[in-house]
Amino acid sequence: MFQTQPCEQLGNFRAIHDRILDNRDILIGEMRRDIYLNSSDTIIVALHNFFIGVNLFKSMGDMELWSDDHDVNTIGYHLVWCTKYRHEILKDGADVVAKHVIAQTCADNGWGIRGLEVMPDHVHLFIQAHPTDRPCDIVRLLKSTSAVAIFHSFPKLKGQKFWGSGLWSKGAYYGSVGDVTQETVQRYISEQKKR
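Below the sequence we write its predicted structure tokens.
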């Protein structure tokens, strides 16, 4: 299992690179939640971006047909949420922490990430979820866990930009994504009596 360590304990760039390459096939659930990230050390930020890209988003791609005991579904959501006051703080390592925590939370809850992009002032997420998971609950959990992790990793942000308030704005965008279009569903329903 890959275990992150404080930057000064990892040694030089080559040693860090080798540790990541040796462990690139681990599962998300085996990863430790605590990231030691020195935001001024661009090598560590770049390597964390590489590590996250290789491991956490193996599930990205087309939606799959999921089945439970009594359900079969392909429910996908396009979710977008913004930082409070649209402050552009999701950069210089904060974006890496956000990606890691979002991916870890999705893995812990059995949600499949099909696309994720962290912009300086907002997050885009294309996620496949179960029918029992409400989109508003998904966003609430992802906002909560990512805010705690970002403020823990970058404690000065809370006092400088948010005056003691939360990281995320109250609202979000929720868009449903499926593998059929609106016209296909309307045509299917209208043709039911003709059969």
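Residues 16 and 117 are 25 Å apart (CA to CA).
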